[in-house]
Design brief:
globular; about 575 residues; alpha+beta; six-stranded mixed β-sheet; six-stranded antiparallel β-sheet
């Protein structure tokens, strides 16, 4: 016994002799923000430490002066000698590439064109990014314009939610391209050796007979079901107190249960929750253990604040730990977006996601709720996370997004996809891109960059341009070459090599009533969006005209297109009532 005490005493004396100094300090960025979870390597021992949630650190060392190396994703590594007698405030500089990623991003871009003035829109406690509608552009001065190709569809179901609540829609909640994305426009497979396929039609413009309408149909390749790579999916679920409503957490539980039915044995599922607590709710589990996953989802319960920042960090760390090389690595964030603990502003969250952008992990955002729904936050997160964005307003929508369109939602065939179109100024005087409106903040930022999008398997989209032609609509000149030259720039998943595919739009004019129904229906969708936004380009037509066009062109066998007709009819009643109120006032 005495021998054991002597040995223990000697051991403690050795530890005391060798751990008599203490390195203390804090880590900040160039804007004086404290940085947590920075990796700190102590050179004398090789041991690794991390800065705490407040950015501070305290490390025991046997030396009076010791050196450390600090590293953090998105920042330049810093190696420095420190005296133990002092408290050190250390600054990490942002990497140049990371600084570039944090710039505002544009959805569409016309070379050398400067933005004008606009007003901001607000609606209660819901937040939406202020948008500036694309205007006509002079083709001989600015022949090139372009837009990000993406699979986002959130705006449509959110618009439907407002109209089903018998209320008007905030103009900035209406994103025309997302309304068009919602519908599958007669998918046409690309050539076997290409990721994208194209077709186009030109006709007279239904709301301005002096102009023409260019409908450009872009289809992405479908993945072979037998060759879909294994998935590493992390469900990041908001279980805070704000989710304690039937159309929030219960709806998400139903949605994820539907998704589980489509899992394969080679897929891995994890669940991270944030609310009253933050942590891993379900450890990485094979897709074959469906009952275990369903039970874990069913046991979710709401409560507490909304520490979204910490939840995102935890989910990404878990996704990294299970990373499948060449697989589909994705975090699926499901929330009303009402973050109120930690980093909560759009800019702060944007920076957080940017740090993970090059990790090969995608981010899909599923929004739910009403009243405090933060559309602006989820849109920013999805775009910065190289992912997509949907809004679930009911169980039928959840089934559409996570079952019927599962491969479009979760499996990418192209990343950072951007379409550039160069108009032939001999045929076009002015042109206007419908939708793909930019955030005001991005337009006024002189260092903004183009924001390419993620394109899901089998995605099919119609983009529309209104054209002011050089020659009269009644006698178009078809001997002046092609109307426009299309070039799509993209990257394959898990690759950084830029690839290109091209298409030339023929100048063949088809009477509007002779267009395939799918393109006339797309025109009705864009007209509906313009009326909701109170666009100056919607002054020449009315709700009954849109209802007529949509009714005549909607596919009788397509329930989603038929529902759209009923939604326009609801909007007509709501907006007609609002006009009467304004007249009385």
């Amino acid at each position: 016994m005495k021998a054991a005490i002597a040995i223990l005493t000697s051991f403690l004396c050795i530890i005391t002799a060798h751990a008599q100094y203490y390195l203390r300090g804090e880590i900040r960025d160039e804007k004086n923000n404290l940085l947590s979870n920075a990796r700190i390597v102590l050179h004398s021992t090789g041991y690794v430490y991390s800065s705490g949630s407040s950015g501070s650190f305290g490390i025991m060392t046997t030396k009076r002066i010791d050196s450390i190396t600090i590293s953090l994703d998105g920042y330049q590594a810093l190696s420095v000698k420190l005296e133990t007698a002092k408290y050190h405030s250390l600054v990490l500089k942002t990497l140049y590439t990371s600084a570039n990623l944090q710039k505002n991003r544009l959805l569409s871009f016309t070379r050398n064109l400067k933005p004008g003035d606009r007003r901001n829109w607000t609606v209660g406690s819901e937040t939406y990014n202020s948008l500036l509608e694309n205007d006509f552009v002079q083709a001989d001065k600015y022949p090139e314009t372009g837009f990000a190709i993406n699979t986002d569809k959130a705006s449509y179901s959110n618009v439907r939610r407002f109209l089903n609540m018998n209320t008007t829609v905030p103009p900035d909640a209406v994103r025309t391209e997302e309304l068009l994305n919602y519908f599958n426009f007669k998918y046409q497979p690309p050539p076997p050796d290409s990721v994208f396929g194209f077709s186009s039609y030109i006709s007279e413009c239904p709301w301005n007979k002096a102009n023409q309408l260019l409908a450009l149909h872009v289809s992405a390749r479908k993945l072979d079901p037998q060759k879909i790579p294994p998935s590493n999916l992390v469900f990041l679920i908001d279980v805070s107190g704000s989710m304690d409503m039937p159309n929030r957490l219960p709806l998400l539980k139903s949605a994820f249960t539907l998704l589980v039915n489509n899992l394969r044995d080679k897929d891995t599922i994890s669940i991270v929750v944030y609310g009253s607590s933050i942590g891993v709710w379900l450890q990485p589990t094979s897709g074959k253990e469906k009952e275990k996953i369903r039970k874990s989802i069913e046991e979710l319960y709401p409560g507490g604040s909304t520490p979204g920042e910490s939840g995102i960090r935890t989910a990404y760390n878990l996704a990294k730990s299970q990373f499948i090389k060449g697989g589909n690595n994705r975090v699926i964030l499901a929330t009303d977006g009402d973050f109120n603990v930690g980093q909560t502003s759009d800019d702060e969250l944007e920076k957080l996601i940017t740090l993970h952008q090059q990790s090969g992990i995608y981010l899909t955002c599923l929004g739910v709720g009403m009243g405090n729904y933060k559309d602006s936050k989820l849109e920013v997160l999805a775009k910065k996370g190289n992912g997509n964005f949907a809004y679930l307003d009911n169980e039928r929508e959840a089934e559409k997004v996570l079952v019927k369109e599962l491969t479009q939602t979760l499996y990418s065939v192209a990343d950072n996809a951007f379409l550039n179109i160069e108009f032939n100024a001999e045929l076009v005087k002015h042109y206007r891109l419908l939708g793909f409106d930019n955030k005001w903040k991005a337009l006024v930022d002189s260092v903004s960059e183009l924001d390419g999008g993620e394109v899901g398997s089998g995605h099919s989209v119609v983009a529309l341009f209104e054209i002011d032609p050089v020659y009269p609509v009644t006698s178009p000149a078809t001997d002046k070459g092609k109307l426009a030259h299309i070039k799509v720039r993209y990257e394959l998943p898990n690759d950084t090599v830029h690839r290109f595919t091209t298409y030339r739009c023929p100048y063949i004019v088809t009477p509007f009533n002779s267009l395939p129904a799918t393109y006339r229906f797309a025109a009705a969708v864009s007209m509906f969006a313009a009326l909701l936004k109170d666009s100056k380009y919607a002054r020449t037509y009315s709700w009954p005209e849109v209802i007529k066009l949509a009714s005549e062109s909607a596919d009788p066998q397509d329930a989603i297109q038929q529902e759209f007709v009923s939604i326009i009819e609801k909007a007509k009643k709501i907006y007609g009532r609002e006009r009467k109120k304004r007249k009385i006032m």
